[in-house]
Amino acid sequence: MKKDIKSMLLTQLKDEFSAMGLPSYRAGQVYSWLHIKKVDEFAQMSNIPKDLRSELENCFEIYSCSIERKQVSAVDSTVKYLFRLHDGELVESVIMKYKYGYTVCVSTQAGCKMGCAFCASTVGGFRRHLTPSEILSQLYTAEKDLDITVSHIVLMGMGEPLDNYDNVMRFIELITNADGHNISMRNISLSTCGIVPRIYDLLEKKLQLTLSISLHAPFDELRSQIMPVNKTYHIDELIAACRKYAKDSSRRISFEYAMLAGVNDTDECAKTLAAKLKGMLCHVNLIPVNEVAESPFHPSSPQRVKEFTQILEKNGINTTVRRKLGSDIDASCGQLRLRHKD
Ligand code: SAH
Question: Ligand 1 centre and the CA of 134: distance in Å?
């Protein structure tokens, strides 16, 4: 088995190289080819002697991904990629352009096992975890393809990042590494459906990233219906973990709330949501749900979203309504992969 070189930290690469009798500066050179110049082949590492390149090729694999499909929004130049991994699995990434720069939304798993009723990633079931190098490759391949540098990352593509905890943590370590891409920790958002023990683990790491919680309902009964994870980790447990996270990290938590017409958009929902979040350093991000052919939900009307917002605001909860990007290209997670398979 060849080793996955792009998932290695520079210190690990140095150890590997030293065990092979190679000087440590060679590890630095290779690391920079992988993470700054983002090459996919040892043959492209022009300052590495040919013999050494073939030796490296025998020991290591550079896992990358190929562009299976690419869609560019005519409305707002959002770009959606469907990437093929080395074993044929398909994952999606999205590049969004904001005033402050480019944001990439990456997938952390092929498929997902969380089973949220409104989410397209659920439909095909869980395939497998992504390695750190495969999460990096989505970003690197998109950057090379578009000739851009991404400044912000959201872990909001396919999959549940906290269900692939170690690989996601390694990805974050690599992407924020000063010898690599060097993205600011503050520019990373990690979104979870609420795997409570992992939220406490994350808190212990004291990372300056933004935690997003996919809440989508303020009552256990309703939340368990649309998000099975809630049967294991109830709302109050989740909110308690969030309160501790916000307090200890002084980082504002973002609660995602997909507005499902007639399901979770009542006044009562808004009031209960506000009561549960009261006093926490947080804000609520309302998202009119994207319709997925396989699921029965429809977005709440703009009027309902407005009224819901007003109740939250009146009760002291900061609320934003998410601007919809790339609506003409199936830019919400799992949708492109789903259609591709049809
Ligand atoms: N598993 C993680 C991250 C991936 S999903 C999580 O649950 O947070 C990214 C976000 O998109 C989540 O907030 C998810 O609930 C939301 N989402 C999924 N399907 C959606 C849809 N059809 N419309 C709107 N938001 C959706």
Answer: 20
